[in-house]
Amino acid sequence: MSISVKDIFKLDSLKKLNLLAGEAGLEKGIEWIYVAECFENPLDGIKWLQGGEIIFITGVGIKNNMDMLIKLIEGISEKNGSGLIVNIGPYINEVSEEVIKIADKLELPLFTLPWEVKLVEVSREISNAIVLSRIEENSLTHFLSNILFGDGELEGDAIEKAAYFGYNLAGECCICVIDIDGFERYLKLKKLEDEISISRIKITFRKIVQDILEKHALKVPIIDKDDAVILFNRSEENCMKRLQNALKEIQEVIKRRIDGLSVSVGIGNPYRDLKMMKQSLNEAELAIDSAKCQGLDDTITQYKDIGIYGLLFNIKNKNVLENYYLDALGSISNSDDKNKDGNLLKILETYLNENCSITVTAEKLFLHRNTLKYKIKKIEELLECDLHNFDDCMKIKIALYINKILK
């Protein structure tokens, strides 16, 4: 966690800070500070930026060369810098309108600071704010990790501790997991292997989540887990309605801002006791898994809506599931391996999904009605069942669900 660019306005040493351009980028996080006076030509220092820095210049290497200042701004933006502070004085006495327009276009916050303000004081205060923010984040992460992943009892009053960090977890709460769809597949597709690029995507992902939650007035604790973020949310109707709206916007913004990326969301059941948040987390993850079993991405799924999957996922012994599947559909699976007439398993699944309607199933599979009737009869013979019998259909339907889980 870092402080945001807008947070530096609160610092005593930056009371005289003046924002010229790039207001749209004030929510960017500041990971560290960088003084671009270490090189005779400030442009030489851009290559060392890692992203997230706020850059200071006195203009000693630029003077009043606005073309060079524009190149500096463009370079900072390309390296994902968070902003630029120009010390107005003997080297740069003002910033041109052209520079301001470029910074606005790139959404890069551009500030001026009077010469009499000492950069050493400013850099020290920003550094302290970043360090304190990280200490607080580590404490919060430890607290949340203990709730979600700890083995022992929660120490003290967890609700009071949450309030200390500024979060209201009184009443019923649930866990929401926002997970990047097929992240490993996405990295291979984009040929991204270096840790910096991968980390940058995750940081952008989390920042989008944080910004949109804040926009919808949802002050909720967040914790990272692999390529997902986990958040706690109160389950009262108003909070859940705002959460649903925020989640839809998060999905839209991520698809727009990060090319080729989408996220799926799982929401667990609500519980009053924070000790039950582990259960809600497990339910949220299973809700996402149920969507994956159906080949779906970019979904929002509540655990209470996943039906039979909720029961099947909680059968930990996979042998039980495999044996059930083989008993119910083994003969048809074996037949499909040798069958020249088409995929009987797919025909069976479509037929059941369409409530055993020959007409609708034939249309969906582009089969003649008589051909479909022949195949349905063959399936009944192989499975020794009657597809007009509810119990037989239920047994097969469950086996089809199991097949998706096992895959």
Describe the structure.
The protein has 407 residues and is of the alpha/beta class. It folds into 3 domains: 3-126, HprK N-terminal domain-like (Udp-n-acetylmuramoylalanyl-d-glutamate--2,6- Diaminopimelate Ligase, Chain: A, domain 1); 153-313, Alpha-Beta Plaits; 318-406, Arc Repressor Mutant, subunit A (Orthogonal Bundle). It has 14 helices and 12 strands. It has a 5-stranded mixed sheet, sandwiched between helices. A 5-stranded mixed sheet has the order 9-10-8-11-12, with helices on both faces. The radius of gyration is 29 Å and the shape is elongated. The model has no long low-confidence stretch (mean pLDDT 89).
Radius of gyration: 29 Å
Beta-strand content bin: 5-15%
Number of strands: 12
Q: What's the pLDDT, averaged over the residues?
A: 89
CATH fold annotation of the largest domain: Alpha-Beta Plaits
Number of helices: 14
* CATH class label of the largest domain: Alpha Beta
- The termini sit apart by 37 Å
Largest sheet: 5 strands, mixed
Approximate helicity band: 40-55%
Give helix and strand order, one letter per element, not per position. EEEEEHEHEHHEHHEEHEHEHHHHHH
> Which regions contain 5 or more consecutive residues with pLDDT less than 50?
none
Number of domains: 3
CATH superfamily annotation of the largest domain: Reverse transcriptase/Diguanylate cyclase domain
Summing up helix and strand content along with how strands pair, one would put the structural category as alpha/beta
Report strand order across the widest sheet. Answer: 2-7-6-5-4
Name given to the CATH architecture of the largest domain: 2-Layer Sandwich
Characterize the overall form. Answer: elongated
